[in-house]
Design brief:
Blueprint: H1 2-8, H2 10-49, E1 70-78, E2 82-85, E3 89-92, E4 94-100, E5 108-116, E6 122-125, E7 131-133, E8 138-143, E9 155-166, E10 170-178, E11 183-189, E12 191-196
Antiparallel strand pairs: 1-9, 1-12, 2-3, 4-8, 4-10, 5-6, 5-7, 5-9, 10-11
């Protein structure tokens, strides 16, 4: 019935064709505006996410920023001559103790570097005197893979000092184990037991 009415009323059919014509003509313009709008939105988003190098800021205070400096420490560093896997099977590791003087102008003195086993028994004293580290100098001490005396609870005690206050050195143990099947490596950071300040 409706189709018969539309056919019998030529004005209704004509109006429908007009609306379809208007929509057909307006569709490309609407699509163009939509594309321009979305393109602009994407550009704004890209600008917000774009990498920006860090900007330098001038300090409002005179002189350098205050950084804590010290003139000596006693330091504890956990170490592992082996760890366990596969239900308790030991996996042997090589241990490198790294001591880095971070001060660019002053040296430090290593007074003691001692290696203890899981029970707290002294295994090795690495120094028989004082070892001086110059500015930004690094020294390393090695516990070889076949040396299993330390065990899974081994540790180092390091005592260092300086004639003048310096930036705190970075002291850490690096463990690495390589086999045909797999490899493992990790770092164990130091913990300060005692500290001497100016």
């Amino acid at each position: 019935m409706a189709s018969n009415d539309a056919q019998s009323d030529p004005d209704k059919g004509g109006n429908l064709h007009k609306y379809v014509g208007y929509l057909s003509a307006a569709a490309p313009i609407v699509m163009l505006l939509l594309v321009l709008y979305l393109g602009n939105e994407f550009r704004v988003l890209e600008d917000e996410l774009r990498y920006m190098p860090p900007a330098t800021r001038h300090s409002l205070t005179s002189g350098a920023a205050e950084i804590g400096i010290i003139d000596g420490q006693t330091v504890y560093v956990p170490a592992y001559s082996h760890i366990y896997s596969r239900g308790g099977e030991p996996h042997l590791l090589e241990v490198t103790l790294s001591i880095r003087n971070t001060d660019p102008e002053r040296g430090i003195r290593l007074r003691e570097v001692r290696y203890f086993d899981t029970q707290g028994t002294l295994v090795k004293n690495y120094l028989d005197g004082i070892l001086e580290l110059g500015p930004l100098e690094t020294v390393e001490f090695l516990v070889e893979k076949q040396d299993t005396q330390g065990g899974s609870g081994a540790n180092f005690i390091i005592i260092w000092d300086a004639s003048k206050p310096v930036y705190e050195p970075i002291i850490e143990a690096v463990m690495i184990g390589l086999t045909k099947e797999h490899s493992i490596s990790f770092i164990s950071p130091s913990r300060t037991l005692a500290e001497r300040t100016e």
